[in-house]
Write a structure and sequence with these properties.
Layout lengths: L1 E4 L2 E3 L7 H10 L6 E2 L1 H7 L13 E5 L11 E5 L7 E4 L2 E4 L1 H9 L4 H12 L5 H10 L6 H7 L10 H12 L6 E7 L5 E9 L4 E6 L6 H16 L3 E6 H6 L1 H13 L1
Parallel strand pairs: 4-5, 10-11
Antiparallel strand pairs: 1-2, 3-4, 6-7, 8-9, 9-10
Length: 259
């Protein structure tokens, strides 16, 4: 058995399973404790980039509660109303829109945009997030929520793509089209790009680990050749570029757009 805290244990076989950790922590949590913040995002299937791995379970409890955090849990004390809470697989959890608003208070704008894009992809509508933001117009994260929400787009296909979009947004570059399908004059498919600026004929691809596989790599090269031959500028970056040399990424895209 793995000891999570002084009175909470889990079999080693399920120690890495989020649902199992949540259920174990709730056994010794205060009445009406609700899963929230990063853990709620995980239960909703939302990935949060730019964060260190932290297995602790996030709980929101009543504002007057004296319960303290432990090595297996982070305790938040903020008001929750009935519309803020639902259940998922029998677990009390903050709704997607309330989870988003809570995360606005603790995440960077780039990470929050990644969360926003995923929330908008079938979990809630932009109007739902706007209403949640209006309900909490002051307090930690209020300005960040209002700033990031208009940039949200459910077409984003990866959290790192969202991070790149925020970097470009902060740099003042024009907003790109997402997941743009490129065809030639005869209507034949040439490829699809993560980000596209149509008037400048600039495409940006963010390559993940899957692009290192031989068959994917070969197809990428063939597609890139077709696009370049059709007059498109194609720029390809990795997460290492976005995280380690963002200023160079912005400069290269800016130069391409200015040609």
């Amino acid at each position: 058995m793995l000891r999570l805290s002084r009175d909470t244990y889990l079999p080693h076989a399920v120690a890495g399973v989020l649902g199992a950790r949540v259920e174990a922590v709730l056994l010794t949590a205060p009445d009406r404790a609700v899963i929230s913040h990063m853990t709620a995002a995980g239960l909703w299937g939302v990935a949060i980039p730019l964060q260190r791995d932290d297995p602790r379970v996030h709980l929101t409890v009543a504002t007057g509660s004296s319960v303290r955090g432990r090595c297996d849990r982070v305790v938040h004390r903020t008001p929750l109303t009935d519309p803020d809470v639902t259940t998922r697989d029998g677990v009390p959890v903050t709704t997607p829109e309330r989870t988003w608003r809570d995360l606005a208070g603790v995440l960077s704008p780039a990470a929050l945009l990644a969360v926003t894009d995923q929330m908008l992809d079938g979990r809630c509508a932009q109007a739902d997030l706007a209403r949640q933001s209006a309900r909490w117009p002051t307090g930690r994260g209020c300005a960040r929520a209002r700033e990031v929400l208009p940039v949200g787009d459910p077409r984003a296909e990866s959290p790192m793509e969202s991070v790149l979009r925020w970097i470009l947004h902060e740099a003042g570059l024009p907003a790109p089209e997402l997941q743009y399908v490129v065809r030639d004059d005869a209507g034949e498919l040439l490829g699809r790009a993560d980000l596209a600026w149509l008037h400048q004929k600039v495409l940006v691809e963010l390559d993940g680990d899957v692009h290192r596989q031989r068959d994917v790599f070969v197809n990428d090269l063939r597609r890139q050749n077709r696009l370049v031959a059709a007059g498109w500028t194609v720029l390809r970056f990795t997460s290492a570029d976005v995280l380690g040399r963002a200023h160079e990424v912005v400069a290269q895209i800016r130069r391409a757009l200015g040609r």
